[in-house]
Design goal:
6 copies of one chain form a homohexamer.
Chain A (H helix, E strand, L loop, with lengths): L1 E4 L10 E3 L3 E2 L2 H11 L4 H4 L1 H4 L11 H11 L3 E2 L3 E11 L8 E13 L7 E11 L5 E12 L9 E3 L2
Parallel strand pairs in A: 1-4
Antiparallel strand pairs in A: 1-9, 2-6, 3-6, 5-8, 6-7, 7-8
Chain lengths: ~160, ~160, ~160, ~160, ~160, ~160
């Protein structure tokens, strides 16, 4: 975890980053049920799932989303604030033993509506794939980022 | 947890449900960091947070979202599938010791674009408030719901 | 989770409810060992268990009991208080991967000994079965329930 | 954790053992809710609890019972099997920050009904007290214990 | 867990103790990643591990070390303090499903450098083996132990 | 988490890195007791601790060590392998609510004894301090690092 200061001007459409993989385990599902209180049989009852079209237990949508967002939380940017998500879509189910990886790409950059002199908005499209390369989840992560003060030089990295 | 069959025709705009409250604890944040790998100091470093404008540790956005969605997971509807979220917005920070409650209201109902004869889409607006009644998170939960077959009677409840 | 007010007069011998299933996972056993401090090899040492008559790791009795009681915690009744259990019996071992389900039936109703005008006692027999339909645990859950005040109408449900 | 072989003949009415204390934490309650799926506001909603006679969150009964039984799981006796509990009574609520300790005393010894030549039954009364010395939980832990074969010497300890 | 008072004079080179086994589970690794924040693909990404010489996910070194030290924490000695470890060596990887056991042997006893009249130092060599009998971890656990006051009799055990 | 290839020749004595802070919580201690099975009253019994010189519960040594090592697990170096620790010393207790930070400095570099042509050894001294700047733990983390093949250019970073 490093602190890397980046101002609005440092973001570029099309720049992207990719994570290493993470295997979604039965333990993750058990812990997520425990954290959320969602013990729906779709996640918890292997016998019933075996009678359903999907055939086996499915990870909670909020689990995959939380894991994916966490996997992109690599560098701390003190100039950016996350304020929400748009178009969160669960495209395919994630099963126990699947391994997910995340790609995040800057897909939109625009001035902040109310404070265009000081702030900008940055959209990062997060795409989660499984071990077969198939997309399981996509979403747009929304950031507000400070614009560089006129007397400030380029990006600074504090390695940690 | 009950199984309550409800078809598209059973949903009405404006109908709503509310949950009991849940206190967000330090343990929840520790467990969510552990589940997601997001150990940003905003969530984990009380000393640093004390030097920041928000003054204390903040719950992860995905934690509050996961808890809130879980709190609404009361009845199983075998006719409905959750496929995503729109307009997820973190309106205010949630601190350790805050108690959240959730209200979910059906806010849009429409035919499914590709299969309007069999399916409909239902939007449920989820609003999370803290113990002061202030909104901390809102989102729209998206469902696809089966339309009632022509030979089928009204909603059925299997109490559990 | 709904709040459903039910007075003593609303309970009937023979009325019952059944839960969906829950698969008992290795993670559940690991977490229960961690919560209780019981790391007996019967639960934790697959190698040693393979040399024993039961052949594999066994879930803690208190784990199955805690899960089963939790699975019946569906509706909140502000008029009832749980005060204990009688005749808790571990009938068969539960192994990793077994799926349990719970049936709870009202089996006894009687006046409270010291305050018969205001309170009654309700016994709910909880039976836990595995995926083969075999009973693994039974117990009697003991409740004290308020009697309906003379000026009060029938049961009220606050859906949530 | 030691393995200490004890046959039925080695148990004596009135013999007892006591544990060190354990503080019941908010994290324990969060983890137990997560393990059982019981998110009743009595355990999880500090705001609502503050409006109730008990005034604050209460530990789940099954949590205190599981912790107490675990605290007595010190020595492994390969000659004894736990088969259930009788008269589990929650005498007082346990609050976050309370410290419990357990005393276990052999209170009954009798021949096994169906196999009196080979087996005996041993009742151990488990009493859980809080930091004020007040009883919060009591139960009777039921064991079946092998009788000593005629050619076998006294108890053996394998320290570990 | 028992409290067993032992003074420096009660320790003997060559005396040893051995634990029962514990199977290292996928859940343990998930929980340790969550506790430490170490989500390296060596521990979390089954797909990538399959492409590496070791072929499968490996338990964190600090997990095996923490488990092993915990497995030796059987008796409380109020006269001894643990102050560190020397020569911690990860000899072989531990995989999911391996079962470890621990042997601890007193391997050095000497007077404390600065307070030889009151204190001594005791080294306990901890050796962790897997189900094949192969060493996976060794370390030296370092204790400072009080010397017996001249007016004090032999060791006392408070069974618990 | 990034993958940063660094060969033996890329390490320099005196180069260092520092982490952000992490507050040690009651939940961390509860989880560590659960992971290790070490429920000693020093960590779990607030009442007893209040009667001791240290006055309050103390984090397990292996918890602080595991957290600290995890906090330094920022970049993956496929050319380096961790094989152990030397001189692990618990200098001061860590209490609930303390915030630790870690500094890691390369303090020794030498050829590998048996394969000096291909491998080197690198010692990284890890120092953990609390919010008062006092050292609570120090250790030396031991790595074996590949030497750069003669046909290989300088360090490569694969950002993630």
């Amino acid at each position: 975890m490093r602190t890397v200061e980046a101002y609005f001007e440092d973001y570029e459409i099309g720049s992207s980053r990719s994570t290493t993989g993470r295997t979604v385990t039965e333990a993750d599902i058990v812990l997520h049920a425990g954290q959320t209180g969602d013990f729906f049989p779709h996640h918890m009852d292997a016998e019933w799932c075996a009678t359903q079209p999907f055939g086996q237990r499915i990870a909670h949508g909020t689990l995959i989303m939380s894991m994916a967002v966490g996997m992109t939380a690599g560098d701390i940017n003190p100039r950016a604030t996350s304020y929400g998500y748009d178009r969160v879509r669960f495209v395919r189910p994630v099963f126990i033993g699947d391994t997910i990886a995340v790609r995040a790409e800057i897909t939109a950059i625009r001035d902040h509506k109310r404070r265009p002199d000081q702030l900008g908005q940055v959209d990062e499209t997060v795409t989660v794939t499984n071990q077969h390369g198939a997309v399981v989840l996509s979403l747009v992560h929304l950031y507000v980022v400070e614009k560089r003060p006129t007397d400030e030089p380029g990006p600074t990295e504090t390695p940690a």
